[in-house]
Amino acid sequence: MRTIRWGIIGAGDVTEVKSGPAFQQATHSQLVAVMRRDGARARDYAQRHGVPRWTDDADALIHDPDVDAVYIATPPHVHMAYTLRVAQAGKPVYVEKPMARTYDECRAMIDACRAAGVPLFVAYYRRALPRFVKIKALIDEGAIGTVRSVAIALHQPPAPAEMDADNLPWRVVPEIAGGGKFVDLASHMLDFLDYALGPILQAQGFAANQAGLYPAEDIVSGSFVFESGVQGVGTWCFTSGQPVDRIEITGTGGQIAFSCFDTSPVTVTTARETTAFQIDNPPHVQAPLIQMVVDALNGEGTCPSTGESAARTNWVMDQMLAGYRAAHPT
Predict the structure, then answer these.
(1) What is the C-alpha separation between 314 and 265, in angstroms, rounded?
(2) CA distances from 193 to 215, 220, 322 (A)
């Protein structure tokens, strides 16, 4: 198999541990170039991570003949623009999540890659992490019978940086993120449920800004129905007093409960017993998915996280945020 030579656009925090090193460690993969608009930071990243080349010019990286595929690790507001440019250059795209700010942007990305004949992958890495692969396997093998419902609760106190109105993190600025932390974090939860239980066909929600710390929504409650008929509810609150991170999948024979953002044990409760599975994450959490992407590019397998699957998650979030966005246009 050939070695896939990668370039990164936007070598920021997510690439330091979660993803960047995985491109270097994956089989038949090599990280050969990185780009940041701040050239000094691009150079620093390249030197620290042993990357041969760096640049502050995205087009220079995209058109570099030694770059075979491009990983877009910027905030969401430029995912679409960069994806269209990479596709036009005839190169495969691996883009951070959420895939874009809206479903319409996702569709434009899918259409551009299809027209160019290049694959489009999205960094919903829980689809490949051992912990979540185990949860899907438990569902598929009938450990809790036939699934009937899902309940999600994600509550977080506000971070100190979110209280500085003059210097807000991009994740709570709708023009950049597409919304608030709901878009950033709920996307992981909803995408995994899409993988484990199938597509969501109906969704609705209520969103509000209760604390007034930033312009984005800080609470969302939603309900949704899967293609299979499974029903779900969720509440995402980002100005709570105490943290909660829990997904409960209930079936005719029991319940699976787990957290999305830490590695506390996955529990399976039936009428007979409760079983706990402790499954830790690898040092670089995107590594299993990146290996799947590399293998897919070499024709040696498939990747479970594509533009089509990721766009479905954006569609669900769009439905839940529709009322809030209409009342608070950006």
Answers:
(1) 28
(2) 28, 17, 21
Model confidence over 145-173: pLDDT tens digits?
999 999 999 999 999 999 999 999 999 99
Superfamily of domain 4-126+286-307: NAD(P)-binding Rossmann-like Domain (3.40.50.720)
User: For 136-146, what is each residue's pLDDT tens digit?
Assistant: 999 999 999 99
C-alpha 172/C-alpha 219 separation (Å) is 12
218, 239 Cβ separation under 8 angstroms: yes
Residues of the chain with CATH 3.30.360.10: 130-280
Closest CA to 86 of 62, 106, 64, 65: 62
- Return the amino acid letter for 328: H
Residue 320 has pLDDT above 90, yes or no: yes
Given CATH 3.30.360.10, say whether it is the number of domain 130-280. yes
Tokens 């878009």 correspond to: 183
Q: Give the model confidence (pLDDT) of 261-316 as tens digits.
A: 999 999 999 999 999 999 999 999 999 999 999 999 999 999 999 999 999 999 99
Q: How confident is the model at residue 1 (pLDDT cuts 50, 70, 90)?
A: confident
Q: Which helix (H) or strand (E) holds 177?
A: helix 174-177
* Residue 22 burial class via C-beta count within 10 angstroms: exposed 0-12, middle 13-18, buried 19 and up: buried
| Positions of E strands within the chain | 4-9, 29-35, 53-55, 69-72, 93-95, 120-122, 147-155, 200-208, 219-226, 231-237, 244-251, 254-258, 266-269, 274-277
Rounded to whole angstroms, the Cα distance separating 20 from 1 reads 21
Cα separation of the two ends of the chain? 47
| Pairing outcome for strands 244-251 and 254-258 | antiparallel
Classify 19 as helix, strand or coil: coil
- List, by residue range, all CATH 3.40.50.720 domains of the chain: 4-126+286-307
CB 209 within 8 A of CB 168: no
Better pLDDT: 330 or 125: 125
